[in-house]
Design a protein that fits this description.
The complex is a heterodimer of chains A (174) and B (428). Chain A has 174 residues and is of the alpha+beta class. Chain A has six helices and five strands, in the order ααβαββαββαα. Classes of the chains: A alpha+beta (174), B mainly alpha (428).
Amino acid sequence: MGAKVKTIERKGSSLQERLYLIEIFKGMGRTFSHLWRNLLDNRKLYVRHYPEVQPEIPVRWRGRHRLTTHEDQSVKCVACYMCQTNCPANCIMIEAGERLDDKAEKMPVKFNIDLLECIYCGYCVEACPVDAIRMDTGIYSVTGNNRESFVLGLEELLATPGAFSDEEYKKGGA
Amino acid sequence: MSMLDYLMIAIRVAFSAFVPLCFVAVCVWMERRGAGYFQDRSGPNRAGIFGFRAAGLVQNLADGLKLAFKEDVISDHIKHKFFFVIAPIIVFFTAVVSFAVVPFADTLVLGGKSYIMQGIPIDLGILWFLALAGFSVYGIILAGWSSSNKYGILGSLRSAAQVISYEIPMGLAIVSLLVVYGTVNLNEMAQFQGKLLFGFIPMWGAILQPLGMVIFIIAAFAECNRTPFDLAEGESEIVAGFHVEYSAMKFAVFFMGEYVAMFASSAIIVTLFFGGYQIPFLATDTLIKFAKPVAFLLMVVLPIVMYFFTGWIKRSNVSHYPRENDPRVFEANIYIKCFWGLTVILELVLIAILLSASGGAAANIFVALLQICTLLLKVTMMIFVFIWVRWTLPRFRYDQLQKLGWQMLLPLALLNIFITSAVVVALS
């Protein structure tokens, strides 16, 4: 019973409010003050001049995916299918192959992500046991001319660098 | 009929036919940029020709081109193709023609002959406007019905009910005005408003009939299907209402019809209540007598206004991010040069008037031009009010709309007639 109950006064029943016009003029005054302020100085508009001024992307932002590598540029992914199994949108298609460099038993021969299916939920990153897939590229706009160009292959995923340093990424709590 | 007669007819018809059309571009621009600025965003300002954006006016051109080249779809389920096609034409045509009776200057006397400065020189005046405003709803009803679409028919039903219920308070507000002015002729009404009340207040309809003005403006908003009365196209519940099946130029004609109707009813509101073409305290006779002092005053005021205006352009038309050799500064400098060039031309015209023989045709033409500018300025301000209200008020619910029309505006309009008649009888 200790909850505080706040009674909100119901508005709209006094004569001044029921006359409509006075309240309408008040509202028009409010909107006009915005127009006038912006007309006098259009730097006060709450807009980002987008294509020229890019938004600042925080570390925890889930951008386009990439695959990480070991120091010797070999792929970290062990083709365990955890991300593919966990993906709610079924956008990851992995084909595993034998790995010969003694880092693990398997490695992906094909690793395709269909970005048109992807919902950027980040579950693949959460599911990965070896930190092989990350969404830290900072790429938020993906464009293409046809459907096929939205399916990313292994090379493209490996080629994209991360936008942040490892320390920053770890601090970000991923 | 002399050459001058034909020329005057051509000028009048051209003015009343093309000015509303030109104002469509201005209205759309004011609406979109205004909406942006009301909501603290910038509105369409990117479209440009060779980098010249003209503050976003070029966007209209882009929109027009896009609509002209789009596929004009008439679905197979539409049985009555004739009515489907003629509906937007009715809306547009009635809107344009209803402006034809608005006088844009006082009767012009040239070479001993007087010319009534309105598109169609008839005495019907306000009755013509009422008739055509009522007729434009046929276009909306036909559009909704011939679309064979439930959203379309719902939108047109709403629109029909709305226009019928707001035509009554509008007509009654006009009745009380007619009692005051004693005429239906809009030119005579405007001349009446040139007089002064108690010798120092301009005798505008807004001062003689404040209640009538409020009722008429509310009803005019409803007639134009503008917010807060735009339930006919309430996109949240009935998609787009009566024009849901229309595409390409047929949609554009509806769209232009809406803005022309807004222009026409702004002009009617200005003529009825805000003195029409009259400049406050300067009736036509006084203006002709003092044409030279007025021209001199304009010569002085014009550069001062232009100085502040160009300063504003210079401050506003810059990029808001670091940029080398900002092209927008270059653009602004060209605009400023254009405006100063315009000022020089206007100054030369004013000098010509100052040097002309007094009492001649030059003074009469100058006064007519001044009155045209006054009317257009007032109409632009009224259009701004339309836009301002649109971006301030939310849409009415349907029952609220009918309640406002029948239970509040109708009794108020009747009350206004009684009070006005009593005062007029008591004073005469």
